[in-house]
Structures are given as C-alpha cells and as structure tokens.
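<discrete_fold_record>
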Amino acid sequence: MSYNILLFDLDDTLLDFGANETESLNKLFQHHGYTFSNELFQVYNSINKQLWADYENGNIVLDVVLNSRFSETMLRLEKVVDGIEWENLYRELLNNGSQLLMDGALEVCQRLSVSNRLFVITNGITQTQIKRLKQSGLYVFFENIFDSQSIGFQKPSKEFFNYVMSQIKDFNIDNALIIGDSLNTDIKGGLLSGIDTCWINRNSQKYSAEIQSTYTITSLVELFDICPPMADSGGEPSAKN
C-alpha cells in the first residue's frame, strides 16, 4: 500500500509531552507553595486521565477537563483552589517549556515531507499545540493542524475524522495513514473512520483484540519501512501485522 497523506498525532508521538508536563507541573505547584511529589503526581495523573477519557468518550466538554483537574486534585488534599487560575498558569508553562522531540521525529518529518503531505491530528489545545510545534521546529513540515478544540469533536469520534477528511484537498482514504501512540484515540479513530493506522508501541503495551492497527512499530524511524522516503527505493512494508 502506498500512502501520501500522513496524519500524525502530536503528544508522545512527535513531541515528548511527558517531559514537558513534568517540568510544567513542578513549576506550577512550586509557584503555589507545594512540593510536587510522586504521590501528588499519581493523584493528579489519575484525575487527569479520567477526565480526558470522559472527554474523548463524549461525556464532558473540554472546559470541564481543563478547569477542574487541578481543583479536584487539590480537594484530595482538602485544599480549595481556583482551578481556572491554576490551569491558565499551567497552560503558560506548557507553552514556554522545553519542547523535546521524540527520537527520530525531526528526521522522519523532514524526509517524509519531501514526497508526502503531512498533517497533525490532536486532542490538544489549539494555541498550545501550534506554539509547541513552532518551538520544536516541526511546524514547517505540516500542511495543516487539526485539533479537537477548533473542530468541536475529539478523537476517536467519526465526526473528528470526517471533518479532517473534508478539509484536506484531494483526500483519498486509500492513500491515508494515521500515525499515533494511543490505541484508544488514534487507532480506534482509524478503525471507526476506515483509515489505515500505524501504532507506535514504544513501551511494549499490551495488544488489544478489539482495537487492532494496520501496522505496529516501536520507533518513528520504522515508519520508513511503511512509507519509504523519495530518495529510498520502495521496499515492502515490514511491520504490518
């Protein structure tokens, strides 16, 4: 199969969100006079993941995720805080933090952009994701950025991907590939919308019987086996399940 429309997830696919998140959370809690311990991170992480899951399942709106995650975290410590104020500062810290690339991200985007059309598909916040892409140096390689905040729907919903497909000129579903690290958003979204998928399974996550990807790789550079850059002779994909 030949793909020339590549739909990349952003966080933990191209950008190391985990590193930026840890740095920003440390600064946020220190600013408010708290030590950001591992125990506190576990509380925050549990609340944050559940809120994002509820959002991705269509049960709550994005503002609820953003404006309540810190207030709910601090309630576990029996502290009442302004969740919106905390979120605004956290967003500023994320925007200005270190935008570290995942291994191989720059090389992959540079080489594939020569002969392919690259797009970002993200459940992140519009301005945050654009700024992070620009700071990372990857922004120039992408034809467009599609985010759930602007679209009004989120991955993995069909509505999100239907919008993306409708906005890409000369879109051909047979020539499109979704690349991402999340089975529940990126890969499931591909299954629901009929687009082939490439799951980046860096950390030996368990495979899912219900959510199966067209391809599975363990690093971004393995994408060259599926989408050979223009300068490469077209070998057959080797990572297909």
Residues 53 and 237 are 33 Å apart (CA to CA).
